Q: What sequence folds into this?
């Protein structure tokens, strides 16, 4: 204790320099308190105690103030209960100053909630007594206007403790009105609406609003499900047969309508063709009137042309006949003139030949050897003939006279012309060739 006092007396007075020495002195005081010392100077202990008290008060006030500002989340309503009076107040979403020492706040959700899962599965009995399992989804909410009056009666979990039992009772009450087959096929919505109306009327009194109820799965017993599937298959086969028959009937009807349409089309086409033919015939008749007049004119024109052609041919034939007559007459006169000329030439030639023969006869009579010489000179150069006067004078003279009478020369002259030319000259002269 003496050392502590001595140590304390040696330290400077904290009041002289409180900013520099007060933290050190306070630290030393705390260290001494921890070591077990009991003697504390009066002034530093009082100041420290005041600081601690002030700090504790500030922390307490800060915590109390922080806890007094109570927040209410969106979609919730805070039911504020006064701990002393027991009065209730509804707090809207936001931050409110309510000290927890005085007020107790219970947040209650008033937004829409969904009942599903195991809480939404019920067993119902149909009209036939079949027990089916139904999965329900319900959308519900707590009525904020009736929250304060109904809050004390609300359970901790309204979905499982209030909404689910009421829905189960409503479905159990409404399901016996429906047959299971129709319930499976077409009456689900009707059952859901009936159960929802029944449950909604019951939940209104508890401050709960039931907005919508939907039926999800409808599970039937296995035995009934097998029978139902067999019946469904039979119904489907019957419906399939009905559909097939209806399709066949429609095909027959389609064939009949197609045939009628084709018949009507053919009739229309025939009528159109007949109308076209009538129109064409009328057009042909109208055109024939003009064509007949044109044909008559053409026939008249051809007749006139034929008459003109015949007249022309007659005139031409007459002219040709006259020309042929004139030509024939001229040819006859020409032939007559030629015949007269030839006759005159023949007479003159015959006379000249006769005179020549007469001279030759006189010459031969006077000189008999002239005949062979003359005959040899007139033969061809290629033929050498030696004549001897084997014929007497009177016989030779008789032969010459025969030749002259027949119109041939007394002595054959040597002629180098072809035989055809000699034949032509003989024909012109009227005698046969040698």
A:
């Amino acid at each position: 204790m003496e050392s502590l006092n001595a140590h304390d007396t040696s330290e400077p007075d904290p009041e002289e320099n409180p900013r520099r020495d007060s933290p050190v002195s306070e630290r030393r005081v705390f260290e001494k308190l921890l070591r077990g010392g009991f003697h504390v100077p009066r002034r530093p202990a009082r100041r420290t105690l005041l600081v601690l008290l002030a700090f504790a008060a500030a922390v307490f006030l800060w915590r109390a103030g922080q806890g007094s500002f109570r927040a209410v989340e969106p979609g919730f309503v805070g039911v504020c209960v006064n701990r002393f009076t027991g009065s209730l107040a509804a707090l809207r979403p936001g931050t409110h100053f309510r000290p927890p020492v005085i007020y107790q706040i219970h947040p209650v959700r008033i937004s829409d909630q969904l009942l599903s899962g195991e809480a939404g599965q019920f067993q119902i009995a149909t009209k036939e007594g079949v027990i089916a399992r139904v999965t329900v989804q319900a959308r519900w909410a707590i009525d904020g206007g009736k929250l304060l009056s109904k809050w004390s009666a609300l359970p901790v979990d309204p979905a499982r403790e209030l909404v689910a039992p009421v829905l189960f009772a409503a479905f159990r009450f409404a399901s016996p009105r429906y047959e299971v087959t129709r319930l499976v096929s077409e009456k689900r919505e009707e059952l859901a609406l009936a159960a929802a109306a029944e449950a909604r009327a019951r939940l209104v009194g508890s401050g709960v609003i039931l907005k919508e109820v939907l039926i999800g799965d409808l599970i039937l017993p296995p035995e009934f499900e097998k029978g139902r599937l067999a019946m469904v298959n039979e119904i489907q086969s019957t419906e399939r047969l009905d559909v097939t028959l209806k399709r066949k009937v429609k095909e027959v009807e389609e064939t009949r309508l197609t045939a009628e349409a084709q018949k009507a089309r053919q009739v229309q086409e025939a009528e159109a063709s007949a109308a076209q033919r009538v129109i064409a015939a009328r057009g042909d008749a109208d055109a024939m009137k003009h064509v007949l007049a044109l044909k008559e004119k053409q026939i008249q024109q051809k007749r006139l042309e034929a008459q003109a052609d015949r007249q022309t041919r007659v005139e031409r034939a007459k002219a040709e006949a006259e020309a042929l007559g004139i030509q024939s007459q001229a040819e006859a006169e020409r032939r007559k003139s030629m015949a007269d000329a030839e006759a005159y030439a023949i007479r003159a030639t015959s006379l000249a030949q006769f005179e020549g023969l007469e001279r030759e006869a006189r010459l031969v009579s006077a000189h008999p050897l002239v005949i062979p010489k003359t005959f040899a000179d007139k033969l061809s150069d290629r033929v050498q003939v030696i004549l001897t006067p084997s014929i007497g004078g009177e016989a030779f003279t008789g032969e010459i006279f025969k030749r002259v009478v027949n119109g041939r020369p007394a002595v054959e002259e040597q002629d180098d012309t072809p035989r055809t030319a000699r034949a032509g000259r003989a024909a012109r002269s009227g005698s046969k060739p040698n």
